[in-house]
Amino acid sequence: MKTVLITSNSLSIIFNQIQAELGGKIEIKSKEYKLELNNEIGKGFISGVSVENAIIYMEYDIMFNVDVSFLNKLSDTSSIYFGYCSKGHVKQSFRGNDNENRLGQFQTGIFSNSSENNTFFNFEKNKKIEFSMVIVDVLSVSDKELKNQLKTTFILDEMNSVFSYIGSFNLKIVEKINHLKALNQKGLVRNLLINSVVYLILALEIEQHKNDLSKAMTNCYSLTQTDMEAVKEITEHIRSAPEIQYSLKYLSRKSGLSPFKLQEGFKIMHNRTVTDFIRNIRIEVAENLIRTTELNISEIVYTVGLTSRSYFSKIFKEKYNCSPKHYQNHQNLLTLKA
Question: Are strands 90-94 and 119-123 parallel, antiparallel or unpaired?
């Protein structure tokens, strides 16, 4: 077992401590750190970014050749760890406690520790892991409402008490993580986008915990991890081919899920019915075609799988508050001015 001791919430110190134990090369761009690893310990990368003084986002996309444990031993006990597994699993435990929490694929986990009960995150060897974590130093959070909510919910007053929670499946978070990975902007725009997405991830983690406690999402528990993976796959299929005339029967057969479970999955992941999701994807694709191609409105309507121009205009206006033609004319004016 290789143990990496983390003693700070400073991103530079964290990456220096990780590099000291695991090796690799650190690349620093603005507030972003990335450690590339390709040695006898493992292959992949660990990245991190400071959202503000109180919040750090860490991402692990790696396969270790040995068991590796990250021990968070901080002098203060105001840090909360919001974890999420996109692939594989990570085990969490506390020093002096033999019990392990298993954070599986598409699951959320929230943990706080004490000066005596430090938090371990354990990565098994020869397992491909995609794991992200939002680390919040609660006492340094500037927003008073957020600080109070975090303190009252996740920081326990009892001496040496710890908080530990493993949530139900959540596919909304992996979408935000993928969005974060796909950002190609630079400078201030990139920093602002990163900050906004990380705050969304944090909000979804907190919302998941709240919903699990109130049992407002009891339908989530009727779906297995395999079911949720099937929902994710059928979602990507629809995104890649919105022009197909989908039916619930076709999607049910293709996903291997019953129509009821398919609808459940879409409500959990997208807060929409299957039909609403398909319609929304078609409108978003159409908007992109208006901006990036010279197709006329009728051609765009058929390209995205719709047959009625009047219906298309109606649902486009509902989403973007203007007609497709007005939107296209505005885009043409912007092009001419450029």
Answer: antiparallel
- CATH of region 223-337, choose from 3.40.50.300, 3.10.520.10, 1.10.10.60, 3.90.550.10: 1.10.10.60
Domain 2-214 CATH class label: mainly beta
Domain 2-214 and domain 223-337 have a common topology: no
Provide the mean pLDDT of the chain: 87
Kindly report the number of other CB atoms within 10 A of residue 318's CB atom.
Answer: 10
Phi, psi of 115 (to 5 degrees): -65, -25
DSSP state letters, 97-163: ---EEEE-TTEEEEEE--SSS-EEEEE-TT-EEEEEEEEEEGGG-S-HHHHHHHHHHH---STT--E
Q: Which DSSP category does 138 fall into? A: G
Kindly state the percentage of the chain with pLDDT values over 70.
91
Q: Residues 5-29: pLDDT tens digits?
A: 999 888 999 999 999 999 999 999 8
Amino acid at 275: T
Q: Are 205 and 110 in contact (CB under 8 A)?
A: yes
**Structure tokens belonging to residue 162:** 């710890």
